[in-house]
Amino acid sequence: MTTIRASRSAEARGHAASFARLAGTVAITLVGLAALTFFIGRVMPIDPVIALIGEQADQQTYKAVYAQLGLDKPLPVQFLYYLRDIATGNFGVAISTGHPVIEDIRRVFPATVELATLALIGGVLFGVPLGVAAAVWRGRVVDHVTRFLGLAGYSVPHFWLGLMALVVFYAWLGWIGGTGRVSLANTDIVPHVTGMILVDSILDRNWGVFRDALRHIVMPALILATTTTAYLSRLTRSFMLEQLGQEYVTTARIKGLSEWQVTMHAFRNIGVQLLTVIVLAYGGLLDGAVLTETVFGWPGFGQYLTSGLLAGDMNVVLTCTLLVGVIFLVLNLASDALYRVLDPRTR
Amino acid sequence: MRSSILRSIACVTALAAIPVAHAKTPADTFVVAANLSNMITLDPAAVNESFTAGVMRNVCDALVGVDPDDAAKLNPGVAESWTVSPDAKTYTLKIRKGLKFASGNPVSAEDIAWSIKRNLQLNLANAQRLREWDITKENVDAVVRVVDPMTLTVSPTRPWAPGLFMFAFTDFRVAPVLDRKEIMTHEAAGDLGNKWLATHSACLGPFRVGNWRPQDIMTLDRNDDYWRRKLAMKRIVVRHVPEAGAQRLLLEQGDIDHANDIDPADFKALERNPNVKIDYTPSLGISYMMFNMNDPRFRSPKLFEAFRYLFDYQGLEATLVKNHSEVRQSPVPLGVFGALPKSYMPYKLDIERAKKLLAEAGYPNGFSAEIAVLNQFPYPDVAQHLQQNAEKAGVKLKITQMIGAQLFQRARSRKFELYMAGYGFNYPDANNIMLRHAYNTDNSDKSNDTISIAWRAGWDPGQAFNDAIRAAQVERDQPKRQAIYEDLQKKHNANSPIIYLFQRLSVNAVSKDVKVFKHTLVGDDYSSIEKR
User: Fold this and answer.
1) pLDDT, tens digit (0-9, with 9 covering 90-100), for A294-314
2) What are the E-state strand segments in B149-257?
3) Which residue of A has its CA nearest to B200?
4) Residue of A184, A293, A295 best to disrupt the B interface, most CBs of B under 10 A
5) pTM for this predicted structure
6) Could you report the predicted ipTM of this complex, rounded to two decimals?
7) CA angle B530-B218-B125, nearest 5°?
């Protein structure tokens, strides 16, 4: 009995220690990230005071605002003040919007999550089957087509693609909505619950707004999905080729299994690797897609971060960088957890 | 399971693919597409960006209005009349009776005096607009006084020319009419309501800010009790569309009424589109380049003169900046009191002459330098044009493009060699321009007048120049004042390291359904809009 209790408590201590290690790693990573961003940001030749007061304010105002922003203090002191503030949940006010950064992020992030999620779904739906097909029919037409699409997906600029899509599908054909998340008539119609208009309109059962939102999101999501498709198809192809060259595949073929069964067997074995790259792709999409968001007037995270950067607005840049760091940490932890489900060897 | 997923995907795809006829904007709503990235605050004491100022001018009336058809003429505003004492030392303004803010509070002289003082106490972007008239935090109580609830007196420290000083009251950033009682209920930590006013309006004007989500959308709602006229538009909606190409598409499709940022390359195509009307009016913006005289290499007026011959002004006007800018070879924009006539164009492209002048300036073999350029059209293109011509004259220029916050910091700290950007003036009188571009009483690095372009260029125009500008400020004979400015501008061209290139045009691209939409030298007038 005592032995069992002792072993349980040792196990609990082990869990606590590993949790503490994890928390410590996370904290060090985030502080390191904040420090790096802060010091790089401060040596950038962009003056946040000018962004705030404009070119024409005089020196008296400049000096007063410079001091108000705390820029007269030494850099390490400014950084410590910043850490103290974020420890108490105060991420400061954004110069570029006049709102608390946290409030802004609550507003812009759902727009990006909505876009990124659809783009990821599109990327997985197109990219993975294409990659598998390219591996199975290596050197055949489908492989060449996949390679071409992959190259195009990487190299065609989203900015150009977005404008062309607007010209063709919005201006000529009228199949999609223009810029923004919904048409003017549908702005602020559904109650804000998640901030994702597709979800909010479903919750509100407002199918008119849902349809309008879908017509607005479909094109930017597809354009973002081109890169994800390219990325996933290339990697899926290479993972599959590696598996298809394994001895167990040869054995399966000798046993007389159909090509479909062999492919599915190999596909199951690339699940873990594929999951990692899909998770990383999602992280990349959540960073915000500046050019796509700009062309489609999408009020998302990418645009917010960029305008903060161009204004030398360190509160915005730091908070956004920390958020991106947290996203990657969470996604990595989530993919680790999913490994255990998918691959019994890692349990 | 699989079939239900497929069915759902098919339904969603079908829903999205149904083409819908493009709706026109509602008849009582005016929809604008603009880049709202720089719309930081709506507080009149802090607004520093031109588009925001243009929008807020339709929300916050100034004490006195500028005539939309003649910028030199003033119209009654919230002040229905004014008198000037014979010695020009006291201005008495009578406030229009019966005006009420959205809160229901009556408008009084106390609100206006408070608004002016608030501007100086906050000491934000627009405090200098008052200090420009020698009204400071220290003397404002003596200068601006409330006589009774409907009467305000302003006693400036100098007897400004009345034709000039009245312009101080035409800018809502100098003399706004703010709802003092309402704002003070939102005061936080002694900020005089600055934080609240960043996202709200408490002014008196044709419209009121309804909703504003930064970098997304802004709506202005009609003030039904507006005193000046009955307004046709119930609502103005400004949508954030950062990309000029997307703005054009929205305008052509009829989804917006006005595109604020059209790419000059698109003007021609839009002119041919029967659904769009496009017109060009002069603005108060100019384009210029300057040398930094703090660099000992750049001190000879011959050098500056040489560069004045390195631009093909007419060629650029006919091609690159067509419908975007017009040639202007003097500081004061056309349409502004004190401007030289349109025919004043002493310079044209003459590379041989430039070479000769360079040799006389001590550069027979040219030199190499960096030109810092604002990364917006047309500056990088004009800089390339200069680079090519300069090369022919033996000068090697390296072009470095920068965003505003970076470039302006370089100018403010005088850390540049050559510089090219634009400048927007505040009110249509030559004083504003000369004060910024030709007045510099302390050319040392310690000077506090970092706002002066003359100081930034390290140009000391000399006592006579500074005195003439001060004398013009109090010259009550308008033709004499005009003559002073004309003379100063010619001398400016002969000596200064600042080279004037163009005057910007305000390009207004609207849907054909917009019947009336007036633009003045100081901005768009939403209260004038009528639609079919």
Assistant:
1) 899 899 999 899 888 887 788
2) 151-154, 207-213, 217-222, 235-240
3) A98
4) A184
5) 0.85
6) 0.81
7) 105
